[in-house]
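Researcher: Please generate the 3D structure of the following complex. Treat every line as part of one assembly.
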Amino acid sequence: MPGVRRLARIAVLIFALASLAAAADVRALIKEIFPIPSATGNEQFLAAKIAGFLPKSAVLSADNLGGVYLKLGTAGGPVIAAGLDEFGYVVSGFTPDGYLTLDRAVPAPLSIADSFLLGHPVVIMTKMKPAYGIVSQPSMHLLTRERRDQLAKDLTLDLVFVDLGVRSESEARAKGIEILDPVTFWPDLTTLANEIWSGPALGQKSLCAALIAAAQEMVPDRSSAADIVWAAQSRFPARGTRASLGMTRVRAKSGATRAIVLDTAAADRGPKSPVLGKGIVLLQAKDAPSKVREAIEAAALEKKIPLQYHMGAESPLMAPFVSDGGDAVGLALPVRYAGTPSEAVSLKDVQALAVLLAEIVREGRLK
Amino acid sequence: MKLRRPLLLGAAFFAAGSAALAQNPFSEWDLFRQLVMIPGISGQETKVMDFIQADLPKSLKVQRDAKNDMWFTVGSGRPHILFVAHADELGFTVDKITPQGLVRLKGRPGFLPQACEARPFVIYTAKGPVEGIMVPRPDFDAAKPQPYAPDTYEMDLGPETEAEVRALGVAEGNPVIFKKHIVDLAPGVAAVRAVDDRAGCAALLAAALQTDWAALKGRTVTCAWSVEEEIGLNGAAALAKVLKPDYVFAIDTFVSSDAPLENNRFADAKLGFGAVLRALDNSSLVPKTELNKMLKLAAAHSIPIQVANSRGGNDGSVFVAGGAVDIPISWPGTYAHSFIEKIDSRDLAALTALIKAIIADF
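Model: Done. Output below.
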């Protein structure tokens, strides 16, 4: 039946083109949100950007930390949540000759995180616009052996000074910089082969992009049964616990007992670690039956999206949802060089995550 | 709480940081901004030389030697004054591609090793530039990792096989440099890799473009752009075999201690305070009489100038054995041999003015 075969070929072509269009959307979203600083406690710029991507008809609200909520389900229904915030620093002071000193607001993702500052540009986000600085390092010609050893072994924030190209504190302040302004790495997006992109905090930004892409597909039909949240201060610990403050707030505001929590997973770190480009990672505290997990697996099967499994993951992001018997499962994006200024993600993984999330909610699989 | 949707400009919001100032094709600052972005590691400076030669007037007889040093000479008689700025920059070359698709690099490029870790670099292949990441230390995510001191630097380009990497055009010997961005810190103050010595190249080129060579009388002036300074003054050494100047003005960075992690006991020339007479470094000591002559010249031309001592060598030193007096002239540059070499346009303007004053009146 040549007619049927022809129709089948056309259908395949249409599907392929649709997939390409969706992939292009994820790329565009990542490019749009990647440069926007969103250090913990300073997520307002990214929150506003995300809100701008959602249809005007979407019912949006915020919590008092700055998290963005897209209402799609009923009160107490399931949520899908991602953090809004990336690791960053804050301005802790000005030297008389115009340099900035830095502090951390949240724990660093790596023990060597501070060493990545040395000799590289940073962005200081003021109230209205970014300012640019470079982190001082010694000139190689003037470097003593003692200083070289100190920088190699024991670099601390005591040795980190941000150079703004000015000569006095007053000139530095004239740039609009204030104490506690967020400081993040220069947003340099690097394109590798095999549809891999790399840059600082690219894992977190890609999660946000995947969730935006999924939300854009869900809003029009309003049949979804889950709320979508981009949580502020997800990296800040709730007092006295390991649990994420931002996700604790999401749990309290939504009343959800079922949740999909989006996270990143360090990829290519050994035989048992997730692999970049090989699918989304399902995270669970223990390998146990779960309605949420069933929904994810059914959607993945439907969309032919490969899942990688990582059990025993005690994620601070999931903790608020599982602490009192809730049903929460993590979906993580594999990230190579996680926590470095060159986090690498596979666009195939990001796209798969967006498709998977859209399928889960569009089909009401969490109901 | 209802979420507000404030206007936000997104990616364009951040473009301002690397926006160029007003373009003037003959100003040293605009020439510098163009030159600094051209890849040209030691031994592979052709693109830099081609850019400079294309800008020079056709009336100047430009020569190149087998090493790719480039120069022109104008005038006749004594003194013979030589200016030399080096066109090369620090970098690696591709040494080997592993079966797993990692690219091993050759060279000890003179950067702080940890500044390279997990940072983007670019390989310039016959098919065009290919971006990759410098692979971090194996235990980068450990609680107490080993210091980053690789015997061999490796890049991750994305592919997982040698064949895929070769299909990108990558081959042994390709030059590899840090992925550059010009960071505009303040008006006329910028930081970028390879200010050393593209700023010197730009100052010499701007001076050459702004000089009325037909008016030159009673002296010989040679303007040269050398190769392979960073790996042993090799280009200048080749030039010294054919050029026998009375005075050589090496135009290169004055490695300044005007920064918070430095000791200001020496190398104390401040950014924004003018050109520098590099009176003493590891390769040359300028006679006091010549220093005084230079200070008088600068004063006569109202050129802000500083005198200081620093570290490092300069191309001019290889001409001394042939009878030349070496007078290195500079701008004060902080963070030398880093990815954030900082420069103030006022200093570069003063340096360009100083070169023109020397051509006319030294």
